[in-house]
Amino acid sequence: MAKPISKKRKSLLKLIKIAFSDLEQCEKIELKDTYKLPNKKIMFPLENYPLEIHVGLDAHVLHLYPELPLDEQDDNSSEPSYILFDPENYYSQISGFYRLSDDDKIILGGDNTEQYALLNTSKKLPERQLSIANSEGKLTFKCHHPETGSCIAPLFKEKKLNKINKWRAEKVTQLAKILGDPLKILSSEEALKLIQQVNHIIEHEEYREKDIHDRPGGVLSIPDKMSPIIIGDLHTQLDNLLTLLSQNNFLSALENGDACLIFVGDAVHPEVDGQYDKMESSMNIMDIIFKLKLRFPKHVFYLMGNHDSFSEEIGKKGVPQGLLWEKQLKNSRGKNYKKEMQRFYDNIPYLAYSKHFICCHAGPPTSAVNLHALVNIKKYPKLIKDLISRRLQTSNRMSGYNKSDVKKLRRCLNVAENTPFIVGHTPMDDEETIWQNVGGISGHTIVYGGNLEKIGVMVQMGKKMYPLTYPVELLSKLVSAEAKK
Length: 485
Ligand SMILES: [Mn+2]
Description:
Largest sheet: 7 strands, mixed
CATH class of the largest domain: Alpha Beta
Bound molecules: manganese (II) ion
CATH topology of the largest domain: Purple Acid Phosphatase, chain A, domain 2
Number of strands: 22
Distance between the termini: 39 Å
Number of domains: 2
């Protein structure tokens, strides 16, 4: 016997029927309660509701879901965002999506490489096939080409409503298995054992040409077919990292070897006002990164940043963070642990690349360079300084790097002249987490992982790198609760 339609669903159907009473039922598609969109604006009457959309002649299916946080946030004041994606790919591989925040509008159609890559839409769509706008959570649709057809259908089933968050909750469980309780500080013995294991892996790391002293060189050559997920300076924001790992298919792509995480350095030293001198969170984030390295030794990499140091020169607003970091490690974990952290700094790479991307912490070399020098970077203090501290040239900072330095680096690595060059180190403002084509240099992208609101990463999909951004959730609490179960 068929399940009776719930009261809730009946009233939803009624609402939609009234709202769409002058629309014809979509004929092409077999789904019930599917409406063909006319050549005028249609407001979808329900907020916070998932929809299926069939776009154009080949009726390519997209889903549009309200973006609901996994954690229970007290603050419900923000207007809902929606995410638009191809459900065929979304749950099975690293895939793109569009976010429709309040006041955003997307026009589907046209010869748009980004749309093919993120949504898998047909290249045959007319220039403007369908537009979708979000205004205070209310969605408006307009089909510009009714003859090629677009339809929408509400996704009624309860399991579909919660599909994304159920899928993400499984990743939280998986994270708890890999990391244990991320809020529990490791004992000195556990911490020492962990870093020793990591150092052993790094000293025998794959994809690293050895330097002239038979030590792992400064360059990490990532296989072209492995998709990098590039994470900017975390500055101890654990929730940012966990949020990221609970999104997309990043975790499963690490498990099956399709992708790798590349941290561009500076995971340590808080950037939040009043916390510059607190070093516990630095120990904790490094422990988490080490656990990831141990679990995925060939797919997690940490590049050198200027804060990855005990130097007295490293600090923020007069707080000597490098010295405090050294003191913290000695006092709470002992001299041997501090030595192991130095061993880690002595052996990590400075630059990663494949034919699809180049990344390092700060900037390109500002003088003549070749691959041999980059591999033997320990011999060249100026090269080290360029890669971990140099900022972009501006009228006030003539010593910075410029377009021709980026060009030279691409040439030195023998990659195409438009290859994305991705760095951290210099966030451009407090609002964003990714900035593209910075300084008018095409393909020059800055990523920052320490924004308290959102975490953005550069990810390779197909042969190109795309920015993907996610709202930060308090996942450390959720993973911790899961680990205690
Ligand atoms: Mn930095």
